[in-house]
Amino acid sequence: MIKIIDRYIFKELFEPFLFGLGAFTAILSASMIMFELVRAVVLKGMPLIVALQVFIYRLPGIVVYIFPMAMLLAALLAFSRLSGESEIIAFRASGISLYRLIIPVLVLGLLVSLVNLAFSEIVVPEANLAAKNLLLETSTQYTPKLQKNVFVPEIEHGQLKRIFYAQVLKGNTMQDVIVQEFNNGQLQQIITAQAAVWQAAQNEWLFKSGIIYLLAETGEYKHLIKFKEQALAIKYSPSDFLIGDKNPDEMTMAQLRDFIKLKEKMGEETTDIKLQLNLKMAIPFASLVFALLGAPLGIARRRASSSIGLGLSILVIFFYYIVTFICMAIGELNLFSPAIAAWLPNFITAGVGWYILSQKAIG
């Protein structure tokens, strides 16, 4: 009997969940991606094939937010139908409590949260980085971009490996370049050059008119090597230098932790980055708390159509993100720790859902 109930509720959740995925994907992709790309195609002459590729790359970034929305809509519509057709009353009359009925919803919410977390950790950073690289490569291909005072650190296994600096970067050429190389945290050598040109075919930089300064383990100068041309196999391409510091959306949680450690070593403020790190886990688990909120809301609404459920879901999500923005602002002011600021909206939403559920269970 218990397994039959679980299968029955899972079946009720499945169709509105798919409907939510489709509806919210259409709404968010149009507002967050397509409008910007259409302007780029019409006003800036971006090739349609490039626009299509950028759209595909950026889509995973909004799917992370769509999963919780779809879970909220699924729980709301499913329990609204069960309540509207008096099936909730029939379940309770047979001795099955609301707390028992909501277990399949929470299980599905947890599964969606875990899938969303894995998706945001594995797919989203690579897709966002690919989208930015494509845009930068396209821009440098047609109109070389000028950037001054380019500074890019390279981290390997949590330690600083290199620091790149160029006074000017235009297209595939850097001017007045300095490269500092480290070994186990110790400065090992310094390379200076008047210019460096990217050799795409060889996947390397050709440094011109420069000097290599070799340092001893004590940090003292040993000797120098002058050169007219010197090819260096550095993993960064011109588009990577144009990116500068990566956006948190383009890094996994492990990479973001390493990035925070580097910033702290450099004496920079890291509160905002720590907030983003905690949000990377808090947002996917919004699916679980929305499942807890959506089911009792559906019981309260009774028979709600898909359009009404969609509208109510958007209203709930709107207030959820308002609370999130407020908590983030408080976190930026260091009134809350980054972890509390990122997770507090989930705790508030779960508390409201549990309160409504307990009231319905009593009533």
TrEMBL record:
Q: What biological-process GO terms show up in the record?
A: lipopolysaccharide transport
| Pfam families listed in its UniProt record | LptF_LptG
Compartmental location: Cell membrane
Q: Which UniProt keywords apply?
A: Cell membrane, Membrane, Transmembrane, Transmembrane helix
User: Which InterPro entries did the record assign?
Assistant: LptG/LptF_permease (IPR005495)
Record keyword Transmembrane present: yes
Transmembrane regions listed in the UniProt entry: 12-35, 55-77, 98-119, 281-300, 312-331, 337-357
Report the GO terms under cellular component: ATP-binding cassette (ABC) transporter complex
Indicate how the chain sits in the lipid bilayer. Multi-pass membrane protein
Q: What is the protein name for this chain?
A: Permease
Organism (species): Candidatus Saganbacteria bacterium CG08_land_8_20_14_0_20_45_16
- Source taxonomy lineage? Bacteria, Bacillati, Saganbacteria
